[in-house]
Please model this.
Amino acid sequence: MSESHLTQSTNPGTRLRQIFRRGDHLLWMSGGAMGLAMLLIAGLLGLVFVSGFTYFWPHEVTAADRADGTKLLGRITDQQPGHRDAGGQVIKTAQIQFRIGNRELYGFDFVWVPTAELGNFRTLPDVVQLERQEYGDFLGFLKRVESADGARVEGPAGWDLLLSRQPVARELAARASRLQRDDIGAVNYQIQKAKLRLTVAQRRAGPNGRVPSELQGAVDAELSRLNADYERLRAESAALLKQATAWQAVFTTIDGQEKKVPLASIVRAFRPNAMTVTEKVRHYLSRAAEFVYGEPRESNTEGGVFPAIFGTVMMTILMSLVVTPFGIVAAFYLREYAKQGPVVRIVRIAINNLAGVPSIVFGVFGLGFFVYFIGGGIDRMFFPEMLPTPTFGTGGILWASLTLALLTVPVVIVATEESIAAVPRGAREGSLALGASKFQTILKIVLPASVPGILTGVILAMARGAGEVAPLMITGVVKLAPEMPFDAHFPFLHLDRKFMHLGFHIYDVGFQSPNIEAAKPMVFTTTLLLIGIVILLNLAAIRLRDRIRKKYQTGVF
Model:
């Protein structure tokens, strides 16, 4: 190599031009952007993970004395340091945030107190923390446990009695609730059906006709029997509630106020400062299980989210069952049957543009077309006796699933078309050469080879559909669903009912709650749960795709 060539190759300007010519800078920029994106995603997931998993842990409760002589009791949830300017003047005072609970007494759950006003921090072992059906947590000291007949138990025996009687009271209250929801609900359902029979008969008889006396007598007898069952069940429920509320506990707050709490309204009672690690772990697992399997309470800021989990999974499955065949059929038509030309190109452009349409636009379309047009038509044709109360002419899980299917169908179409195009041309020609028709070739050769790519589109559609909220807000999702879409009444799966959704639950708790600060941990926990459900659904679809890929292994894979 000549000396001049060596000098040129080692010239920094020449090397820089060679790097830009080869595109190495783009490679490093792409890698850096990917690394930054992964770092941001990992940071976000880490924040959600830590904030969500620590929510159920029983933290210590701290007592402190204030400068004005009053006392403070609560869990320290946040601290803000103070700041001074260059001259030593205080710009911002150091503060400590306490979660004091006792909302019905103080009107708020949290309080910020300047650090300089606090002293004598201590953890008292006899502090009792209650999780209640209403008004959130209570922090105080047990004074006594008393019954409706005047019996009173104080001291350590009172705490033992509270721990032993509280599960019994909760079970009695739960039985009363099940009676009201299930048994009395079933009687009300039968009463409604009996009244509908009269309504249908009156409608068939015309404005001047009369309901047949035999039918009228049979319905009256049935209603009389059902009303008797209703009164019997109501009396039984009232008796259970009376037994459940026979015992109550009397507590005092750190500032001397007295509060009576029925044992039936206590979800959990514990002394966080006196718990061992084993007891804390057991408490943590109990609360985590309640969060997954329980029902929400206290404006959705406490309790469980099982109705929202059920609604999310059911809606995602319904959406997938609808979007998959429609996306596959549309893709096969565009790729295999439609004559390629300007019309097909316009259709493809329209499909690609649909993926960028704001989701709320799909929600408005679903409200107008599915709910008012199709649902209203179904009501007029098949449920006229229920009008003006709508059956299908209002938001429900069926219309929400169809709306999200429209939202995600472009993803499935594009993925399916790409998968079809990747099938080797020789496989098609070999099938046709052996005498198979075009339909048989598509059904036996092209479709099986395209299934992994199709499932990739379905996985992407499920991931997007499960997290959408805006279209659901106007097509069927509600803050709290009184009835789940599945029950023991025929046809068992009621697609006309409204439902709860984890995405909307996060929005409602995080932005619509009257006590946003107290609901913040629930937001992180529900977000973590939603991410977990989406991952599980995707993993199930990915496993199915891999099994099919191994079964129909071809050269394209």
In short: Residues 308-502 form a domain with the MetI-like fold fold (CATH 1.10.3720.10). The first strand starts at residue 62 and ends at 66.
